[in-house]
Amino acid sequence: MTENTVPGRRVFEGIGVGEQIGATTLVFDRARLVAYAAASGDRNPIHWSDPAARAAGLPDVIAHGMLTMGAALDLVVGWAGDPSAVREYGTKFVAPVVVPATGQVEVEVAGVVRKVDEASRTVTVELAVTHDGAKVLSRALATVELR
Amino acid sequence: MPVNTSFEGRVLEPAGTFVVGRENVRDFARALGTSDPRHHDVEAARAAGYADLVAPPTYAAQISMNAEKVFFDDPGTGVDWGRVVHGEQKFVYDHPLVAGDEILTTVHVDRIREVGGNSLVTTRCVLTTVDGAPRCRSVSSIVVRGEQS
User: Fold this and answer.
1) Which chain A residues touch B96 with a CB distance below 8 Å?
2) Range of A118's domain?
């Protein structure tokens, strides 16, 4: 049963360097970290156990870098209209997102077009990903092939 | 203990296959918070031209991580998982990963360096289906923090 309309891929024409693709807020809590640990197979206890995080020299439990990287990409996928449009995606992890035992933390994501390539009909979007005003990901670049 | 640099340049042939599972794709997409129907609804994925559910792009990380275990779990490498943080990650996609894909992963240990008391390890994973169709290349750099940092 298809409940949702499948979005179509965005048309390449008309997209320019400097265009803002939008912004979103990711909300992380311990439950989400545990869900990601289970689904991804990354069971490193620094992502769910306070003592393990402290033993590793961290202030508290931190989100998986791959959770932040993966969840931030959704902004680009939604804009491109198709998860299979993604050709390349890379980043540097520059600061951890600390997730306390109770409550939620927010990660801000915004995207801007950095490069447009006519020959391959690809667009490269840079994501700004911040938490508490500090950069979490650096040079987060996603290249999508459009229609 | 620093990471054993003699492992640099090693190529680890696939130890087995990783099967992309339909429910795992759904759980992974849910944990990421991505609601695209191609990750959740088989009919929607088929209508889009895929044999089954399409995995979110970063799903490739768990396949490469699984394959890298062969290297990192080798006691000779000297990697203490409690001191590992992810430094950099890059994916290049040939084709989306789809539920039902049986993936073979070759791990290349490209670089091991000591920098300021920490060890930097860069691995490159090449993911193909058992039929040899390319899926994804994943390059990952981890930092193994030294005892002093």
Assistant:
1) 83-84
2) 12-28+64-145
